[in-house]
């Protein structure tokens, strides 16, 4: 895949929303906001500060109504994603942007929002491990990988994998050297203190505890995904 000429300006934008996981946004922001010859937009329905899952406030600079056509749309996840799964203003925005964007990039359960917008049919995709079983209900081919590229749809798994995916996206757009320069600037050299970052690696008691904490939102996401599939499968 050839990179874009350096003189091609890129509009990069992230949809943010209440109770998102800020790391799904801020991790990729570190790289995507530094793409040479680009402008980054932080987008929500209005310009009031948006609280994340832990009440960190992020201030949007552009409304959904005023957002330009983007070359790259970043869709983060977090518990607040579930409240938007039938929000037509948000879903229409994602669809509208996706129609002409070079890439749509979901992080964590942002993939489920893309699924609700109808973008995952027949696409390989990944998401947070607690939500992986919902992907087929949106017509996707679930892949337990940190980053999945399928056409103009790029998805990253849980939270920190958003950094990996953003560097992959930078490499696609501006080349490996630029991506490596940004990786070095970010000092992104993961050396985790524990080998518990994936369900297959975590100790059983740790997996059980974390799964239990996510049970309520996991069940809610499954219910929503099943309703989407039922509606999609309905004749006419």
Q: What do these coordinates show?
A:
The protein is of the alpha/beta class. The chain has a single domain (10-233), classed as Class I glutamine amidotransferase (GATase) domain (Rossmann fold), CATH 3.40.50. The protein has helices at 22-32, 88-100, 110-116, 161-174, 176-185, 204-213, 215-233, and strands spanning 10-15, 38-44, 50-51, 57-58, 62-63, 72-75, 103-107, 124-125, 141-142, 147-150, 153-156. The strands form 3 sheets. A 7-stranded mixed β-sheet has the order 5-2-1-6-7-11-10, sandwiched between helices. The chain has a two-stranded antiparallel ribbon with strand order 3-4. Helix 1 (22-32) runs parallel beside helix 4 (161-174) and helix 4 (161-174) runs antiparallel to helix 5. It is globular, with a radius of gyration of 17 Å. 42% of the residues are buried. The mean pLDDT is 97.
């Amino acid at each position: 895949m050839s990179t874009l000429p350096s003189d091609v300006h890129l509009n990069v934008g992230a949809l943010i929303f209440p109770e998102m996981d800020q790391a799904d946004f801020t991790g990729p922001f570190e790289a995507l906001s530094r793409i040479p010859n680009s402008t980054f937009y932080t987008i929500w329905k209005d310009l009031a500060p948006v609280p994340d899952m832990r009440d960190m406030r992020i201030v949007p600079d552009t409304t959904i109504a005023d957002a330009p056509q983007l070359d790259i749309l970043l869709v983060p996840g977090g518990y607040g994603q579930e409240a938007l799964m039938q929000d037509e203003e948000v879903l229409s925005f994602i669809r509208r942007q996706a129609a002409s964007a070079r890439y749509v990039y979901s992080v964590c359960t942002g993939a489920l929002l893309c699924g609700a917008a109808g973008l995952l049919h027949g696409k390989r995709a990944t998401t947070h491990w607690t939500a992986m079983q919902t992907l087929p209900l949106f017509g996707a081919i679930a892949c337990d990988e940190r980053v999945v590229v399928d056409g103009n749809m790029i998805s990253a798994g849980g939270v920190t994998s958003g950094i990996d995916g953003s560097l992959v996206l930078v490499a696609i757009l501006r080349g490996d050297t630029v991506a490596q320069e940004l990786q070095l600037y970010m000092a992104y050299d993961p050396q985790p203190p524990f080998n518990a970052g994936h369900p297959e690696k975590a100790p059983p008691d740790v997996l059980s505890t974390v799964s239990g904490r996510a049970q309520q939102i996991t069940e809610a996401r499954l219910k929503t995904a099943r309703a989407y599939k039922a509606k999609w499968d309905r004749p006419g």
